[in-house]
Amino acid sequence: MDHTELLFFTEVLVGGLLSGVMYSLVAIGFVLIYKTSGVLNFAQGSMVLFSALTFVSLVERAVPFWVALLATFALMVLLGLSIERLVLRPLVNKPPIILFMATLGLSYMIEGAAQLAWGTQVHALELGIEDLPLEIAGVFISKFDLFAAAIAAAMVTGLTLFFQYTRVGLAFRAVADDTFAAYAVGLRLPRIWATVWTAAGFVATVAGLLWGARLGVQFSLSLIVLKALPVLVLGGFDSILGAIVGGLIIGAAEKLAEVYLGPYVVGGIESWFAYVIALGFLLIRPSGLFGQKPVERA
Amino acid sequence: MSTESLAAPVAAPHKPARAALPLRKEPGAGPAALRLEDITLSFGGVVAVSNIDMSVEPGEIRAIIGPNGAGKSSLINVISGVYRPDRGRVWIGGRSYAQVPTQKLARLGVARTFQNLALFRGLSVFDNIVTARVFARRANFIEQMIGLGRARRERLDARERTERIMSFLDLTGIRHTLVGTLPYGLQKRVELARALVASPQILLLDEPMAGMTLPDKRDMSRFVRAARDEFGMTVILIEHDIGVVMGLSDRVTVLEHGRKIADGTPAEVKADQAVIDAYLGVVHEGDEEEPAASSGSGRRVSSNGGLR
Amino acid sequence: MSSSVLSSVPAAARLSLPVWVGPLITLGIAFGVIPFVGTSYLFDAILTPFLALSLAALGLNLLTGYAGQLSLGTAAFMAVGAFAAYNFNLRVEGLPFVISIGLAGLSAAVVGIFFGLPSLRLKGFYLAVSTLAAQFFVQWALTKFDWFSNHNPSGVIDAPPLVLFGITFGGAVGRYLFALTVVTAVTLLTLRLLNTQTGHNFIAVRDHELAARVIGVPVLRTKLLAFAISSFIVGVAGVLWAFAYLRTVEPHGFNLDRSFQILFIVIIGGLASIRGAFFGAALIVVFPLVLSRVGSFLLGSYFDSGVLDMSQRIVLGVLIIAFLILEPRGLVALWDRVVRGGKAR
Ligand SMILES: Nc1ncnc2c1ncn2[C@@H]1O[C@H](COP(=O)(O)OP(=O)(O)O)[C@@H](O)[C@H]1O
Ligand SMILES: [Mg+2]
């Protein structure tokens, strides 16, 4: 590999890692909820769509940026709380498969409602960051991707600190470790769930803005849930670290495959390639890289 | 005794391995129906079972007792291949295993019940029981769909055996009921039926009477004894109710903290000081009434000692 | 004491008609009455798609409802069935169409086994996500390699006429009868299957995998068999969908939304219920029609196709959640309660 090739490779790799961070961002929303209530929240993608649509529609109606941001965030928190209260609370103790199907129903509802309220046309979302390539040591990197990755990284750090050092955070980890025991010692689960759904709403807002700015705000935004799933499978549904590492691996592998493999396999493989990587890993480690192995008891 | 590697160049299955006999510790016994050799099992740091040796004669009813967490269920799980022990071997019908192949358990002549109900809730009583003849089926699913030839023979055989077990256990009246809707005691009985219908040589029962009412317990004891007397099964039974244990079993093995602290006839075990210290004083596990409970000393330590 | 418990239970054996009377009457009407009184709108827009979706839901129900393995890739297996039937029919001279259908089902079964292989190692969501791989991969392959669509530039191909045992099923009524015949046959076979050891094995693996293994159920083989049989049925449903309903074969209709739609049919109709597949499909086919009538009646021209689409999604989502919370056993349980007139809880 000569120098230019190496540079090109690095460029592709970095680009992949940066978009991987964006996958991680969505995946973390899942992990938060999965860890505390054992629900694989399929509606996470539609929440991303909903937040982006809301924000962009408000901005288009001349609402100031920060006001729109706050309003969107508030709405997402409200949405998260009502999902928890109206849908998941009545289904508590139901098998995970049932909870999952409920979130599938939710995602239909939210997608429908978002587009009924704000329309189905594609909106451009401007966050004020020009998408110019930035040269670092001969490698060109998208400024926007860098910015998005920085935000995502900041959020991940923030969430980690929050769950590491605050009381609610500690309670969260207790619940995640052993829901039953946590209940027995009197931790107030509903409050923890509320916190987690607030956090998930927050994550969805940030992801919605970043992804919306990148791809344009439209229905297909909710499909990033399909990008997050292989990341989760790879990292383990219950591991924040897994979501980050999984996102990076998938992001990088996808870009590299697109560039180096794409020409040979008639292209367009991005719809399933991430799944194949994830499945490959799974066959070696059935609970993902960092997931907890379920123990069979009899 | 870790001599097994030298012994028994594992001959034809289902033949008592003569070569193993001279190495056995128990004097004068015939070939054991089941033998555990130096079984040790741990989960992470927790040692659930440690260095257990045990030998059960054909036709014997063996009780395993001990406080909660003593490792009784783990032992049954080792025997049925659900867990793989860290060390030791399990001898069944003249063959020894590092891990018993669960999938072939029924064909090895071993059937079991579970501490917590493990019925197929979506099937009726009859179907739960008849399904347990699966190990004897050879016909593939297409033959089953056509339903002639051996598929038909196997089906009729399974149904007939199910009928017999159902009338033996007094279940015929509820044959079409979904098991999930039955009261607890009956569900336990259906689970016993599901184990019996396989006509096993060895029957493993993990707390078959836990949480039962007194009359249900009495029925269950009667069924267990009949399983031995009428079908000649070897029974290994975990039970907390000392009254039941004393009345039902030929020998009793006592576990505590994963160790065997005693092994003998009910009378011997009852008189054993280590057992009295370790177990009889704290029998109020679960929430069952306790007829024979000696109001003895509280908790104490004494992990070795005992008979043997 | 125990005998009193025993005698109280079989009270469930009420005085009622044998269970086969209802289905038999339904079949009689479906074959003997409807073909003579129905309009071609009824056949083309309602009954034929209803039958195809019912069959797909029946297949999924076998896998998810009975064998307990969640699949999110049902539409992929429909697509395999449709394209396989098309290609067998196209490339093998003189192959009777019944055989093409059978081979289409077998092709779907093979693909189903392949994507079911992860079920040997994976459980729950990990498995569900892996079935998504089937969805995306199959759709990609059918779009990318135009051999499958006989190098047809648009990727949309007309379906050949339907011939069963020398009878050509033409026209709206014909296609309906064709679908009805196939669905009836497959449903009867499924009913039979559920009463065999294999059917019981499915339920055993679903309800208590460990206990199933202990009694000797070949758990891995049972799971793969569930994937195979389910995919076979779904593949045949795909043939009906493409040949009898759409009359074109193209990959785009077999997308993730279709997979979810079939899953919804199963949930709404009732998991682990044959009738559930039909009840659910009926609701899914009929409710958009009702919604559009009601919508345009109430809202007039504001209720355009976009709005209809969105309100459909919302109503569907609400329905799913409502059923899961209020009646997890689905329409079938509701129906049974109504028929029994509220007695016998
Ligand atoms: N699958 C498992 N994973 C981790 N620990 C286990 C498992 N099964 C049993 N144990 C532990 O092993 C010990 C013995 O348990 P068990 O055999 O169930 O006892 P018993 O049946 O006598 O009450 C306990 O400390 C229990 O927590
Ligand atoms: Mg136990």
Q: Would you spell out the secondary-structure blueprint of this structure?
A:
The complex is a heterotrimer of chains A (298), B (308) and C (345).
Chain A: H1 3-37, H2 44-60, H3 65-88, H4 96-118, E1 133-136, E2 139-142, H5 143-165, H6 167-177, H7 179-184, H8 189-215, H9 225-235, H10 240-261, H11 273-284
Antiparallel strand pairs in A: 1-2
Helix pairs in contact in A: 1-5, 1-8, 1-9, 1-10, 2-3, 2-4, 2-8, 3-8, 5-6, 5-8, 6-8, 9-10, 9-11, 10-11
Chain B: E1 34-43, E2 46-56, E3 61-65, H1 72-79, E4 87-92, E5 95-97, E6 110-112, H2 125-131, H3 141-146, H4 150-168, H5 184-196, E7 202-206, H6 214-231, E8 234-238, H7 242-248, E9 251-256, E10 259-264, H8 266-271, H9 273-278
Parallel strand pairs in B: 3-8, 3-9, 6-7, 7-8
Antiparallel strand pairs in B: 1-2, 1-4, 4-5, 9-10
Chain C: H1 2-8, H2 21-32, H3 34-37, H4 40-66, H5 74-91, H6 97-116, H7 124-144, E1 157-158, E2 162-164, E3 167-169, H8 171-194, H9 197-207, H10 209-215, H11 219-246, E4 248-249, H12 256-269, H13 274-299, H14 305-326, H15 330-339
Antiparallel strand pairs in C: 1-4, 2-3
Helix pairs in contact in C: 4-8, 4-11, 4-12, 4-13, 5-6, 5-7, 5-11, 6-11, 8-11, 9-10, 9-11, 12-13, 13-14
The structure holds adenosine-5'-diphosphate and magnesium ion.
Name of the CATH homologous superfamily of chain B: P-loop containing nucleotide triphosphate hydrolases
Task: Assign the CATH topology of chain C.
Answer: ABC transporter involved in vitamin B12 uptake, BtuC
Rough shape of chain C?
Answer: globular
> What hetero molecules are bound to the protein chains?
adenosine-5'-diphosphate, magnesium ion
Which radius of gyration of chain B do the C-alpha atoms yield? 20 Å
